[in-house]
Design a protein that fits this description.
Strand order of the largest sheet: 9-8-10-11-12-13-15-14
Strand content: 15-25%
Shape: globular
Radius of gyration: 23 Å
Length: about 425
């Protein structure tokens, strides 16, 4: 079943013929190969590129193993390029190619070659290509299926769609599975046998239980402010073992490089500066996060926040956690305290402040959620994304309320 991924296709199309290596990054099993070899290849064919000018190799396939030798690959490609027409080279799992950076550089010198690569496993991540080709590597980051992409193939009741998505996430293989038991089992095995194993092998980690424990702690604390010191303290109090904050920091870096998690920095809205620690860590796919915890910690508030964060990033926003200092008189004293804004989302010169809320059952809860937004005095849009409730539009304080599903199905709702 074909899942339309037009957002990423258009990002590839907009980068065509720019003289750079187009590097498709993303967590494993997010659809990088399908995007390149099915969707993008079909686009080229539909727009008049002849099949013999699309040179694709999936280097992880057994029958292509000889092309992992750079001499063999160069000879093969050079033999296919027989005229001055534009050729498109598509290389999947390029980390399996020896001396890949020199080979890719050779292709860049050919003016009639447009180059696209993917790759991510224990020996290589797509970020390595970007490092090798500073100024000549152009990244297209692909996420697991968004909620709107998920809805293209969801066949259940509409009312159940959110719960399934928030439980099992958006990895394409998982979404297309029909049985819940199959989904959960696959996610658990994938996390353990693919993601963790890759990270351990790639980084030469010897104390494997330590990084396993760090993953568990991070999975348990999505949506909460944390830092390496706090995680190290959790080791002492909960696991009765010791680990240094620097070691925790290195493990988090490994998880981020594998695209398993990402980090939202704290931003002082009034001071217009980054604060530093603590930060928030979110999973690239909530299904993997839930599977890691054996589907035992299903706090919908935090899952909703994680999904909104991923959605904003998918649409190109840079996303921070906001902090607002507010002063008020209390018992005759002028006191200050920090209020948190779930997200400060920036796209070019546009910005919006967002609170993620399951429901607003009473005025007290409404005032609580609005407090940080009302403390911000600039003219950028202040938004509350609410899961339950029909409230839409602006209130008397200029706060915009948007239903969660409306936002997920139409991110442009932030700008309406």
């Amino acid at each position: 079943m074909l899942i339309n991924r037009n957002l990423y296709l258009q990002r590839l199309v907009s980068r065509m013929h720019n003289g750079m290596v187009k590097v498709i990054t993303g967590i494993r099993r997010s659809g990088k190969s399908f995007l390149l070899f099915e969707i993008f290849r079909q686009y080229l064919l539909d727009h008049g590129v002849s099949a013999d000018h699309i040179l694709g190799l999936q280097l992880d396939r057994f029958e292509n193993r000889r092309y992992r030798d750079p001499e063999e690959l160069l000879a093969f490609m050079n033999a296919q390029i027989v005229d001055d027409g534009r050729y498109y080279i598509l290389l999947d799992e390029v980390q399996m190619l020896e001396h890949f950076s020199e080979v890719l550089n050779s292709f860049l010198y050919r003016k009639n070659v447009d180059l696209y690569v993917t790759g991510s496993n224990s020996k290589f991540l797509s970020t390595d290509v970007l490092t090798e080709f500073r100024g000549r590597g152009d990244e297209v980051h692909i996420f697991p299926l968004s909620f709107s992409e998920f809805m293209q193939v969801y066949r259940g009741e509409s009312a159940d769609a959110w719960l399934e998505y928030a439980t099992y996430g958006g990895l394409p293989q998982v979404v297309l599975m029909s049985e819940y038991e199959q989904k959960s089992g696959f996610l658990k095995r994938l996390f353990e046998e693919t993601y963790i194993k890759d990270i351990i092998e790639r980084n030469g980690i010897l104390k494997t239980q330590e990084i396993e424990d760090v993953v568990n702690i991070v999975a348990s604390s999505i949506g909460s402010l944390t830092n390496p010191t706090k995680i190290a303290d959790t080791f002492k109090s909960k696991l009765k073992s010791s680990i240094s904050p620097n070691t925790v920091r290195s493990y988090i870096k490994c998880l981020k490089e594998a695209f398993l998690i990402s980090e939202a920095q704290r931003f002082d809205v009034k001071g217009r500066r980054y604060i530093g620690s603590p930060t928030k860590l979110y999973f690239e796919d909530v299904g993997l996060r839930n599977a890691r915890l054996n589907f035992r910690q299903m706090e919908e508030t935090h899952l909703m926040e994680n999904i909104i964060y991923n959605e904003l990033r998918m649409w190109g926003y840079s996303v921070d956690v906001g902090s607002v200092n507010k002063r008020q008189m209390l018992e005759g004293r002028n006191l200050s305290h920090q209020l948190e804004v779930d997200f400060v989302a920036n796209l070019g010169n546009r910005r919006c402040y967002i609170q993620s809320v399951l429901s607003l059952p009473d005025q007290r809860k409404r005032d609580q959620e609005k407090a940080s937004l009302l403390a911000i005095k600039d003219a950028f849009r202040k938004i509350i994304i609410i899961k339950d409730g029909l409230e839409q539009g602006y209130d008397e304080d200029g706060i915009l309320y948007i239903n969660l599903k409306k936002f997920l199905l139409n991110p442009e709702a932030l700008l309406e």
